[in-house]
Amino acid sequence: MRSFKLAAMALAGVAAMSFGANAGTAQQAAGKPATPWHNAALSPEQRAQALLRAMTLEEKAGQVSQQFMFGAFEQFAPVVRSGKVGSLLFVTDPAIINRLQKVAVEEMRLKIPLIFGYDVIHGFRTIFPVPIGNAASWDPASVEQVQQVAAEEARAVGLHWAFSPMVDIARDPRWGRIVEGAGEDPFLGAAMAAAQVRGFQGPAIGTPSHIIAGPKHFAGYAAADGGRDYDSVYIADTQLYNVILPPFAAAVQAGAGNIMSAYMDLNDVPAVANHWLLTDVLRGQMGFQGWVVSDANGTKNQVIQHFARDEADAAVRSIAAGNDMEMSFGPAASAETLAASVRAGKLPQATLDRAVLRILTAKFRMGLFEQPFVDEAAAKTVLADPAHRAVAQRAAERALVLLKNDGDALPLVAGANKRVAVIGAMANSKRDMLGPWAFQYDLPETVTVFEGVRDRLGASATVETAPGVQLKRNVPSMFESITIPGVAKPEPRWDAARAAREFERAVALAKASDLVILTLGEAEDMSGEGASRADLKLPGDQLRLFDAIGALGKKVVVVTMSGRPLELDQVLDRAPAILHAWYGGTRGGTAIARALFGDVNPGGKLPITWPRSVGQVPIYYAHNTTHSPKEQAKRYWDIPSTPQFEFGYGLSYTRFAISEPRITGGPLLPGGRITVSTEVTNTGTRAGDEVVQLYIHQRAGRASRPVRELKGFHRITLQPGERRSVTFDVGENVVRYWNGAVKDWVVDPGTFDVWVGASSNADQHATFVVGGSPRPAKGWK
Ligand code: BGC
Is the CB of 168 within 6 Å of ligand 1? Predict the structure, then answer.
């Protein structure tokens, strides 16, 4: 599939060049570059330097400015002509992209192409599981493939850059954006971050059919006070280095071309103007080489944050801190004020030049000066590619987490029940199946749970559906005043009489059926940006519906859909089986039906600790232990302090045995390695996947360390009776940590516990020794 795609894109490239080729391209073809920066024999950096020398201060200030484009070409062409943007976001029509680009490369003095960015979060036309669902696959190779397909579709319409992946480590499920990340753990988060960057960008920036990745939000956004979106964040440096930053470091090491700075204050300094964060840490310690963009209006927000005096001050302070580009609704403060600020001596010209160079270098690396346009006809073929839907189905299957399966209630036997009811507010809702942060999807081709089950059972059963309840929509406030295709507008509310009728209709349908598949959870817009919640209960009348259907004595299996853990205690008490499906995307319903009827065996694991109650939040497995560890389970007197489901948990239709870990080598000395291996056996009767997880714990040292920390995982497929050896490498990078007293990375010698198993409660245990003396450890570079 991949090579076919690359060939198709290469052809698209040839066609694109024939579309109104700019002067530089035409002359280059004749062997003579129009300008030094059109000379493709020079490096992108050299070309950017040459172009910079030709630019006025106003042109530079425009280059570091990016605007949202919600509207028509006619409205935005003048903005491009004004020279006040170097980039636009949210244009996705290839014809409009080409027309705007034509203005930039034909009408403007220096013919600098625009770079087009977009939120390609979990797919473009083909929608994949939401990111937390992708993380639940514990399968970086699959997630890389997902983002490669997303990149291919985005590039086909003329986009160059994704504001993705979101790599914020989130430990508070009240925070709505937990759905956009990989969960609570820095090791899993780092693996998912790097995989996604590779998927978006390919082997190098500028690879055909790929786009630039923009990991976000740098840094700490997920730790918002109270889980309230955009609220202030206070994080100790130890947390920042050991928990929050590792996925960013992994993304940078994977070559991420862009980083988005976060909205909020980090320890009282707005992230967008935080020189320590954006320059000392990101560039100095991590070695980031690309450009930093602000979040939407992040630069101007410094005024709201009572940090900057006015917008001119804000533009100076963010660019001086290392935030190179300003993302803005309407005119950017940078475009409007930076030239004057340089002239007034408020900003060194070299600082503006540095930002411009970073942005131009990216444009050269993407090949935009050679090929600014996109082939409009070819886009349609790429977006319609059935192979992309196959990738979506597999990804949705791999994201499924089996939470409960008493008495092997699942899988169901197709044909065994003649009348099947698929009930629930989301049972037949196409938009909900896609999840938040999807805009360009094809609704008719999206498969709901009802449709998936109906198609799977064919003539062997009658399958019917009813919503039973209606969920109140949450329209994110940022979208209230603008219309974006795909953002749900509230559907008319049912009045009391309709609500009663629908409820009774669903119960009657259940009563007339032999089997009920009940979907419970949150509507898709109840998580995502501006979608935090103060409690984690099932919203609306869903519990009452569950009770009413449960009272009928029918076989009921539950499919939960949400972007965050929910309080499910009452459902867990009574439903024999619960399959958690997140939001599966375009082929979500097909994947769910295949799992329910045993065509695939769920093998996903929770990337986040699932609390019993919102009162436990934040709760995460990698906590430290303090006074009276025996009482650890009794930290509250009213409920257990253990979670409902631990991090890394997930069942299967088969069983696995995991042997005691065997350690080879040791003690671990500088530059050395040991290996930890275990034997995994499928002791059941079906093929299935196990995610074998490795956790370690430092018994003593120069800091108290978490009770256990994930340091390795492998998702493997075993046939019934099959046995496989799984090996993990342990080097200094596994045992190092950032020490708050030393203020640097260190390794502490001593004894370490190691566990292998199927979740963070893994109990197969051994120890190993780190030898030598206390020592500094290598940082990220
Ligand atoms: C979000 C970003 C997003 C940007 C552009 C912001 O409100 O925080 O994650 O990339 O909008 O849509």
Answer: no
Lowest-pLDDT choice from 17-21, 34-38, 308-312, 329-333: 17-21
Ramachandran class of 226: left when φ > 0, alpha when ψ lies in -120 to 50, beta otherwise: left
Structural contact between residues 582 and 562, judged by C-beta atoms closer than 8 angstroms: yes
* Amino acid making up residue 750: G
Query: What is the set of active-site residues?
Result: 295
Same domain membership, residue 564 and residue 692: no
Domain boundary among 614, 647, 681: 614
Domain end point (choices 595, 614, 633): 614
**Residue 680 within any structural domain of the chain:** yes
Nearest protein CA to atom 7 of ligand 1, as residue: 296
Asked whether residue 126 is assigned to any structural domain, the reply reads no
Global model pTM greater than 0.85: yes
C-alpha 118 – ligand 1 centre gap (Å): 9
Q: What is the pLDDT of residues 179-219, one digit of tens each?
A: 999 999 999 999 999 999 999 999 999 999 999 999 999 99
- Please check whether residue 99 lies inside any domain of the structure: no
Count of the separate structural domains present in the chain: 2
Instruction: Give 341: exposed, middle or buried? Use CB within 10 Å, 0-12, 13-18, 19+.
Output: buried
Q: Tell me the average pLDDT across 364-393.
A: 97
Cα of 592 vs centre of ligand 1, distance in Å, is: 30
Q: Which atom of ligand 1 approaches the CA of 164 most closely?
A: 10
Nearest CA to ligand 1 atom 11: 296
Does residue 180 have its Cβ closer than 6 Å to ligand 1? no
* Residue 528 and residue 458 share a domain: yes
- Write the residue with the smallest CA distance to atom 10 of ligand 1: 163
CA dist 537 and 567 (Å) reads: 5
Tell me, in angstroms, the distance from the centre of ligand 1 to residue 257's CA. Answer: 17
- Is 177 near ligand 1, meaning CB less than 6 Å away? no
505 lies in which domain range? 391-614
Cα 529 to averaged position of ligand 1 atoms, centre (Å): 8
Distance CA 312, CA 394 (A): 49
Q: Pairing between strand 326-328 and 269-270?
A: unpaired
Taking all residues of the chain, what is their mean pLDDT, rounded to a whole number? 94
Strands (E), 9-165: 65-68, 87-89, 115-118, 161-162
455 and 543 inside one domain:
yes
